[in-house]
Design brief:
Mean pLDDT: 82
Shape: globular
Distance between the termini: 35 Å
Radius of gyration: 19 Å
Number of strands: 9
């Protein structure tokens, strides 16, 4: 390898490191042929307002352009989404989930620590989903911060937001609308709140997540889906 090639390789590595540190995203390459994009959704999903500076956040205004770029990049053959989020902004989370669901490349998600609140639509937005045995899914009603006007229109608005979330989950997971709503409004589990916490296999049994597994299983499934897509493409063998 000559000096120019070493310099170019170093610049690529530095850009990858910067991208991972700034956005929680990186592109993995397999023998120079298949490229997989890795997206991590960590901490709070940040919307139009900035979260406190000491909070771990996933900024939707960073993620959305990157997802659009992926769709336009023929070299990217699949995407793996790693989730460990407490939730966050509803509109921002649903925007990311809708973008992921509309990608033409195969996508797989892996819930690690947890995927709570608006993290649930994000977990089910991919073509296939995994959760580690100790991972958690928390389904609960929409929470609002700040002053809330005690009018019937306010509660109707809350219902509309929850309907959007429940509708997305039931469309992209193997669980009925009414069952998602039942989990969301459960009064028996959380002593000071409504909702349901599902751990590992429980999330699979409820139909929210496809399979219990870790990074090995997630990559294995993604490669399988990428191979099938390549085989079924025009001119594939």
């Amino acid at each position: 390898m000559n000096q120019d090639e070493k310099k170019n390789e170093k610049e690529i590595e530095e850009k990858q490191d910067e991208k991972l540190e700034e956005y929680g995203q990186v592109t993995l390459e397999e023998n120079g042929k298949k490229k997989i994009h890795l997206l991590s959704i960590i901490g709070e999903v940040e919307g139009h307002e900035n979260a406190p500076s000491n909070s771990k956040t996933t900024k939707y205004d960073h993620v959305l352009p990157m997802l659009a770029q992926l769709e336009d990049d023929d070299k990217i053959k699949g995407m793996l989404v790693l989730l460990n989020t407490s939730g966050g902004d509803v509109d921002a989370g649903l925007a990311i989930a809708e973008m992921i669901a509309s990608l033409s490349i195969p996508t797989v998600s892996l819930v690690l620590g947890g995927s709570h609140s608006i993290g649930v639509p994000l977990a089910v937005s991919t073509d296939y989903s995994f959760i580690v045995p100790t991972g958690t899914i928390m389904v609960h009603p929409v929470r609002m911060t700040g002053m809330v006007i005690g009018a019937s229109q306010t509660y109707e608005y809350f219902e509309m937001i929850q309907d959007r979330i429940i509708g997305f989950i039931s469309k992209h997971a193997s669980i009925a609308y009414d069952q998602v709503k039942k989990l969301m409004l459960n009064t028996e589990m959380l002593t000071r709140d409504l909702g349901t916490v599902l751990v590992g296999e429980e999330a699979v049994k409820q139909g929210l997540i496809n399979q219990v597994g870790g990074i090995k299983e997630a990559f294995g499934k993604l490669h399988q889906m990428m191979d099938e897509r390549e085989k079924n493409a025009p001119g594939g063998c």
